Amino acid sequence: MEFMSTVQYQIVKKQAKKIFNAHTSSKDPNVIQAVQGLAQEEINSQLTFADIEQQLILQPMFELKTKEQMEHFFNDIKVYVKPFERPTDSEIKKLFPKDKKLKLPKFENIDWKEITYLSWFDSGTNRKYIVYREDGVLKGVRGVYSTSEKMGICSVCNRHSKVGMLMVSKSGTTLGTYTKRGNYICEDSSSCNEALTEIEKFYEFVGNLK
Question: Which residue in 27, 62, 100, 118 has the most C-beta neighbors within 10 A?
């Protein structure tokens, strides 16, 4: 039974890595127990379990001592992740009616359990597209994306990474005028999705572009 969202899956992975690092960097049982306790608190605050069986699925994370154990754990719990529901080509095209020659991404290369939002870059138009669901409704934003060749804080995942400026233009209140809104986001959307553990940050970002 799938009971975790992608964001929750990334939260579990993040906490599991902290426990693994504690096991490999410290021999003090008190230190390890403290890290385990904080990880348990974070998971309890972010996940809702339907029964004890779901809680037991995550228990191996507290004894991760090798990278192999950690990778096995990630793979084992991935079956319980709800995938991003793949939109149809027509659904995506309806989100961007002004883009008559919209180039869609290669869906076969996407791991739908690893993404909270779908994003791709069209080098021909310098446009970056973001497709997501909010309250079950498929939504999308797109804007001109300028690579910066610099490191910065991503407005979506809050991670220090290679970022670029996504600038969205909207029609202004006066005919013929436009307003522009933008912010820095990860150039690599896959790693951004992996680092995204606060869905509110994502919704705040896309909300500010509208």
Answer: 118
- Residue 194: domain span: 89-208
> How many domains does the chain fold into?
2
From residue 158, how far is each of 39, 123, 205, 208 by CA, in Å? 20, 25, 11, 16
55 and 138 share one domain? no
Q: Give alpha helix (H) positions in the chain.
A: 6-25, 29-46, 52-57, 67-78, 89-95, 189-195, 199-208
The token pair at 181 is 């809104």
User: Residue 144: in which H helix or E strand, if any?
Assistant: strand 137-153
Pairing of strands 137-153, 160-171: antiparallel
What pTM does this model have?
0.89
The DSSP 8-state label assigned to residue 81 in this structure reads B
Give the pLDDT confidence of 50-82 residue by residue, as tens digits.
999 999 999 999 999 999 999 999 999 999 999
Could you read off the pLDDT of 136-161 as tens digits, one per residue? 999 999 999 998 878 999 999 999 99
Single-letter residue type at 90: S
| 1 domain-assigned | no
User: How far is CA 154 from its chain centroid?
Assistant: 12
DSSP 23: H
Half-sphere exposure (Cβ direction) of 39: Cα atoms closer than 13 Å: 26
**Last residue in a domain, options 31, 47, 78:** 78
